[in-house]
């Protein structure tokens, strides 16, 4: 690791934590229904929204009603995204006259954006109209993120309340998260991105004369003298795709595209945005349960794991490819070059900013990419893949990351209780059989989806025929795709032609189950915890804000991830690494 | 194909509702 790599990584982490703290305090006020300084402007909009929608903001919901509302809202949104894609050829804002999207691709994309995954089997600029990008995808970027925050708020209330039958109001949580947190942040970020050169226009794609004609690759080999440049209302979508840990790019190459991420400054701001809300929610959690130290413990566990894996990814990429050494290519870092493995990376970002982004985007369930993960070294590519396989709890998606981590905390106190004979309780709530059943379901569901999906993918001809690279790397491509869908990340390893009926359908099922089959038991857990009395801490209580507990939590996450996925990783990136360095 | 995907969505929703009922019944059994 070079000095520049280290500096960039530390700068990223320090700035992230500094910005997250005040935002976390603000979100605590939003989620507890307290007035905020934005209330004078946004309060009337909030009240009108409730009145028009017929919502009683004071009406509380049981966990079952909360789950039903969340599911209904998400399924309606999913259907809308599907229908808009299927009818986009007759809808407005389609200056390129793009055709309706195929049914399997529409279904995959609809599930993908409703579940906050944003896996993309299509190329945005060649497939989707501006109307579809705005009214279908960008809307889902907001509301799917708000759904995650709402479910987290419900779980936190489960811990904070005593002998309660309700866990809040889904519609209020959804509205307040969107109105007070996501919309203002996205508006501000979009303006910053426009200042850096991210496009925001409804114009049709302009055509420009090429400086030098090129021979086309069609049958006639005609001379091509003009190029169409894809543009569109990108900045407004990029802002929320990063903040909401959605990740779906306006353009096919996502944040490697100069119109999505033009400068080192835009890259830094976008990379911070990826983890910002998830980090801030740890502070929000601490405030809402009345013990900030609990939030710091969560944030510490996430940050330590992130930094360790980020450093590993940077070292692997900076080490480069041994095949280049054999050819005598100079691959060490210097004033004139980044050195290392620059295949698939933008020269304006270099090794450090590509590896930092790859780690952040897979730690969060974001999935946007500024470099091609398929071209990473085997161990460099293992890091983002494993971060997803850990269950998207290292910061994770907005809301979903922290509620996943809280489930791991429940498992950690249970394991600790078994080991040392202490009463398993967390934040004053006794952890009993029901909580452990729900926690086990939540933790085991994603690995089951990923491993069964991958097994099917490598077993059927329609699965293997989409692989661009044979052997171990091809296995990694399929494993990565199901890891991404089965943990609602959405990043692609590339190299896998996933816009096929098989992958569109299989990955859609994986994304749906990974989101909603975790959301429902999480809300059941919230309902169960809310109904319990709070037990005052005694001599037998395991403190959950200490470095010891942070270590235990990290070990629990890492051990579950390692025990579940090491055999699969051994067949893919580990075997590829041994092949590469064993020659 | 639209009908096939609609049927798949309905199936996924029914299974999710079943999961919800399972969670509710486990919770109810405890109390």
Write out the strand line-up for the largest beta sheet of chain A, numbering strands in chain order: 1-2
Mean pLDDT of chain B: 92
What structural class results from the helix and strand content of chain A? mainly alpha
General form of chain B:
rod-shaped
Helix content of chain A: 55-70%
Assembly state: heterodimer
Shape of chain A: globular
Unreliable segments of 5+ consecutive residues of chain A? none
- Stretches of chain B where pLDDT is under 50 for at least 5 consecutive residues are none
**β content of chain A, as a range?**
under 5%
How far is the first residue's CA from the last residue's CA of chain B? Answer: 45 Å
- The topology string of helices and strands of chain A comes to HHHHHHHEEHHHHHHHEEHHHHH
Helix content of chain B: over 70%
First-to-last CA distance of chain A: 24 Å
The helix count of chain B comes to 1
The largest β sheet of chain A comes out as: 2 strands, antiparallel
Average pLDDT of chain A works out at 94
Biggest beta-sheet profile of chain B: none
The chain pair forming the largest interface, with residue counts per chain, is: A-B, 30 and 18 residues
What does this entry look like structurally?
The complex is a heterodimer of chains A (583) and B (31). With 583 residues, chain A is mainly α. Chain A has 19 helices and four strands. Chain A has helices at residues 3-31, 39-53, 63-86, 103-114, 124-127, 130-160, 170-196, 235-243, 264-288, 292-319, 322-326, 350-363, 378-389, 400-420, 433-459, 461-464, 471-485, 501-531, 547-582, and strands at residues 207-215, 223-228, 425-426, 429-430. In chain A, a hairpin with a 7-residue loop joins strand 1 and strand 2. With 31 residues, chain B is mainly alpha-helical. Chain B starts with a helix and ends with a helix. In chain B, 19% of the residues are buried. Chains A and B meet through helix 3, helix 4, helix 15 and helix 18 of A and helix 1 of B.
């Amino acid at each position: 690791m070079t000095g520049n790599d280290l500096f960039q990584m530390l700068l990223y982490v320090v700035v992230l934590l500094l910005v997250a703290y005040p935002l976390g305090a603000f979100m605590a006020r939003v989620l507890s229904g307290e007035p905020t300084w934005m209330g004078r402007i946004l309060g009337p909009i909030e009240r009108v929204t409730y009145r028009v929608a017929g919502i009683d903001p004071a009406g509380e919901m049981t966990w079952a009603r909360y789950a039903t509302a969340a599911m209904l809202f998400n399924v309606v949104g999913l259907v809308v995204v599907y229908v808009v894609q299927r009818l986009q050829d007759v809808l407005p804002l389609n200056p390129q006259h793009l055709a309706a999207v195929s049914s399997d691709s529409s279904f995959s994309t609809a599930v993908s954006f409703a579940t906050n995954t944003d896996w993309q089997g299509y190329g945005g600029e060649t497939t989707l109209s501006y109307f579809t990008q705005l009214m279908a995808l960008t809307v889902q970027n907001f509301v799917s993120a708000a759904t995650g925050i709402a479910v987290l708020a419900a779980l936190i209330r489960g811990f904070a309340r005593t002998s309660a039958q309700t866990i809040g109001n889904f519609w209020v949580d959804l509205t307040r998260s969107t109105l007070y947190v996501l919309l203002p942040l996205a508006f501000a970020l979009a303006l910053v991105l426009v200042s850096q050169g991210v496009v925001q226009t409804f114009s049709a794609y302009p055509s420009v004369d090429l400086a030098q004609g090129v021979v086309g690759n069609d049958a006639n080999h005609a001379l091509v003298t003009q190029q169409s440049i894809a543009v569109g209302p990108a900045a407004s979508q990029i802002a929320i795709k990063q903040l909401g840990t959605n990740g779906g790019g306006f353009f096919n190459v996502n944040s490697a595209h100069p119109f999505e991420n033009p400068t080192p400054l835009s890259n830094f701001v976008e990379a911070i945005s990826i983890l910002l809300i998830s980090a801030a929610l740890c502070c929000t959690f601490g405030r809402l349960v009345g013990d900030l130290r609990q939030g710091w413990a969560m944030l510490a566990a996430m940050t330590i794991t992130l930094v360790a894996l980020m450093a590993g990814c940077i070292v692997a990429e900076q080490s480069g490819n041994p095949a280049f050494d054999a050819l005598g290519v100079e691959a060490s870092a210097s004033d004139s070059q980044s050195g290392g493995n620059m295949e698939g990376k933008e020269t304006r970002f270099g090794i450090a900013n590509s590896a930092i982004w790859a780690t952040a985007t897979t730690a969060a369930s974001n999935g946007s990419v500024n470099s091609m993960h398929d071209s990473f070294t085997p161990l460099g590519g293992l890091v983002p893949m494993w971060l997803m396989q850990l269950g998207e709890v290292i910061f994770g998606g907005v809301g979903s990351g922290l509620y996943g981590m809280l489930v791991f905390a429940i498992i950690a106190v249970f394991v600790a209780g078994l080991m040392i004979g202490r009463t398993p309780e967390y934040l004053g709530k006794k952890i009993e059989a029901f909580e452990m059943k729900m926690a086990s379901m939540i933790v085991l569901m994603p690995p089951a989806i990923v491993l069964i999906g991958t097994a099917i993918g490598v077993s059927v001809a329609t699965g293997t025929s989409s692989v661009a690279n044979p052997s171990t790397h091809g296995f990694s491509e399929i494993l990565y795709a199901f890891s991404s869908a089965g943990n609602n990340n959405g990043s692609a390893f590339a190299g896998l032609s996933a816009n096929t009926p098989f992958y569109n359908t299989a990955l859609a099922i994986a994304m749906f189950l990974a989101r909603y089959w975790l959301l429902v038991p999480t809300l059941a857990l919230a309902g169960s915890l809310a109904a319990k009395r709070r037990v005052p801490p005694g001599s037998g209580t395991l403190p959950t804000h200490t470095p010891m507990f942070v270590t235990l939590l990290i070990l629990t996450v890492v051990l579950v991830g390692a025990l579940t996925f090491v055999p699969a990783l051994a067949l893919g990136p580990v075997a590829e690494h041994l092949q590469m360095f064993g020659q | 194909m639209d009908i096939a995907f609609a049927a798949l969505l309905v199936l996924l929703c029914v299974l999710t509702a079943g999961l919800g009922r399972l969670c509710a019944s486990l919770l109810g059994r405890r109390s």
